Amino acid sequence: MAEVIRMPLLSDTMTEGKIISWNKKVGDKVKSDDVLAEVETDKATMEVNGYVDGTLLYIGVPAGEAAKINQVIAIVGKEGEDYKSLIEGAEPAAAKTAAAPAAEVPQPQATNLKPETISLPAGAKEIRMPLLSDTMTEGKIVAWNKKIGDFVKSDDVLAEVETDKATMEVVGYEEGTLLYVGVEAGKAAKINEIIAIVGKAGTDVSAYVAAEKSGANTLTVGRGSLTESEPVETAPKQQTTSSSQSPTDEQPATANGQRLKASPLAKKLAADKGIDINKVNGSGDGGRVTKKDVDNYVPGAAGSAAPEAKIAAAPVPVFTATGEEGHTDIPLTQMRKTIARRLGESKFSAPHFYLTMEINMDNAINVRAQLNELSPVKISFNDFIIKAVALSLRQHPNVNSSWMGEFIRQNHHIHIGSAVATPDGLIVPVIRFADQKTLSQIAAEAKVLYGKAKDKKLQPQEFSGNTFTISNLGMMDIEEFTAIINPPDSAILAVGRIKEIVVKKADGFGVTNVMMLTMSCDHRTVDGAVGAAFLQTLKKYLENPVTMLL
What we know:
CATH class of the largest domain: Alpha Beta
Largest sheet: 6 strands, mixed
Strand content: 25-35%
Strand order of the largest sheet: 18-27-26-25-21-24
């Protein structure tokens, strides 16, 4: 059975996607993990996978043209298969199903299914796990805000989902009764996997769900969208909310004895900020407290001072050696999974080599002090390095490149990623077009991005698209180290601390300030001489920083 590939929802604000290029042509064999096309959205250029095996039978949108969300862009099936009915919108007849209460959807019996396509009952709409970033492969359902049988509106937040970068909210964009929940809270769903179905109360969707699980149905695109970035939870949950239980069932009571409605993310954020969530006015459905309400909450004069807590002194336990060993297994967050996967792939697939150079920072120290007397924002040494790297990449475009498997992509724009450590792992905010910005502009933008990174509020467009990365551990007294290349970059610069050393000056000795830089290079795209020439240019800029102001 031929399968339809539709334009996916790649960001919460996307309404259409422009096909930049097709990586396959009609008649080509494709695999489920092949990248069919590159699509430009309102935020980034991303890759579209077909998630099916077969022959590319049809391309509905030529390169250079745009397609609306959910529009058919391609069809994959058996070679020579007739697919015209799919283009014309014809669908096979729906299987006859008996009406059943929405809250009691029977489990489908896959063994009784025939390998044929079964349509979703009229009026029912599926919600699939959407793709938000090019690194996301699955999303973990943290909690469901609705249970089977509940009526949902098109703007209701159905669930909280933990991705590889942040915990976000899924909005279904459909109105009706929640008929089916495909993934329990605490479990993960692959991209495009059905996580819920919404429709008319009493509609039986069991046959469609069974056909979907058997792989017989046409591939369609989820309508869900991830919105409202939230911090990733680092501590493992003691309990998870099942798909048949709404998180609001266990909300604390307000002062008048009524149940307080609040999303799990809002409760967690309020707890992190020390805010009594009972005092926050909810703007959501039925007075539900959302993240926005917590962010905008300003405590009154009477409520600003928290009541003094009585802390009972715990007795010092008597130590008794038991001779037993123990350990704690910490569940992996989506961010940690992605860091492990991507850096593992980088380290063991990209042939790394390393170049180290010593930089005299005496002039940089003096110039920085003078600039900070005039600059509206404090300029750091890392800002100097970002600017110097960006200007050096202008002269050495081979370093500003990416290995694409069958070709090398040389980027014309210069986006510098600056690694920031968080409790959940490393994240890389990106300074876009860094070569075109002044030191003050870089410093101001970097300050905002670093703050967002530490508060876990970075948006996807703020931590993607890097063409070169800097990792600075100098502020932690590290003198020299090597870093793993951050894909898709061809190089990463490891920056050590500035230290004083004694050197010979004239007829005596004196003190000078030096800093060690080590660049990790992907030998597939950057040769040793190319990397060395880049570092020589970078050294000139840092040792004579006034040249960056010309």
